[in-house]
Amino acid sequence: MKRSLTILFTAAMVLSLSACGNNQNDKPSASDSQPPAQTQSVPNSQTPVTDDTASKENGSDSGSKILIAYFTAAENSGVDAISSASYTTVNGTPVGRVRAVADMIAEETGGELFSIQTSVVYPTDGEKLIDYAAKEQDENARPELTSKIDNLDQYDTIFIGYPNWWYDLPMVMYSFFDEYDFAGKTIIPFNVHNGSRFSSTIETIQKMEPQAAVVEDGFTVSERTVADAAEDVASWLDGLGY
């Protein structure tokens, strides 16, 4: 009887030790138990970016770059560009209004400038330019682009600037968004207006680039105060984390 009890006790101990050994394989590995990487949301955008991406966007040497693409009629007005109604004077130098804001953004972010050029020669006279813009809208025109972005893949963040013409984007901007696919990139709009601010242009960009993260908190400035906008631009960029 005692021999039988001893055998049963020994068998029970062996089974118990075997079960403990198998349970060790059910424990998660150290890597599995790490918390997920923290993300930093782009203000008012639709897609979060990682902290690493954020550092790239702020001009670090980690590989990613910032592009500042802008359209101004002042740089598309032919030989008479210097007299264009789209010009302002910054520090004594005549410059297209949208280009002036682009320069301020470049100064703060280290981004690369890209001028959106078209085969259209826009009128330098303000009234004629307004009439021409209305004609383009009526015709739903798509002006031909004559400048090209090289190596778009290297940019994660694209600042895009334009004037507000008749409560809408200039038609050349439709050509621009037709030309490029910004899927997976962050688009940050900025514009110059004469009272209409952005109108619905940011929503229009979102519709044309549905796979991009379009920041809704863009920068808009009256054409009459562009020359003095540097501090406002810096404050806006600081609020976005740049």
Short description:
This protein is of the alpha/beta class.
Describe this structure in words.
With 242 residues, the protein is an alpha/beta fold. The protein has a single domain (63-240), classed as Rossmann fold (3-Layer(aba) Sandwich), CATH 3.40.50. Helices cover 35% and strands 19% of the residues. It is built from 7 helices and 10 strands. The chain has helices spanning 2-23, 51-57, 97-109, 126-139, 171-179, 201-208, 230-240, and strands at 39-41, 48-50, 65-70, 87-90, 93-96, 112-115, 155-163, 186-193, 213-214, 219-222. The strands form 3 sheets. Strands 3, 6, 7, 8, 9 and 10 form a 6-stranded parallel beta sheet that branches. A two-stranded antiparallel sheet has the order 1-2. The longest helix is centred in the N-terminal third of the chain and has 22 residues, at 2-23.
List keywords for this structure.
alpha/beta, Rossmann fold, 6-stranded parallel β-sheet, two-stranded antiparallel ribbon, globular, disordered N terminus
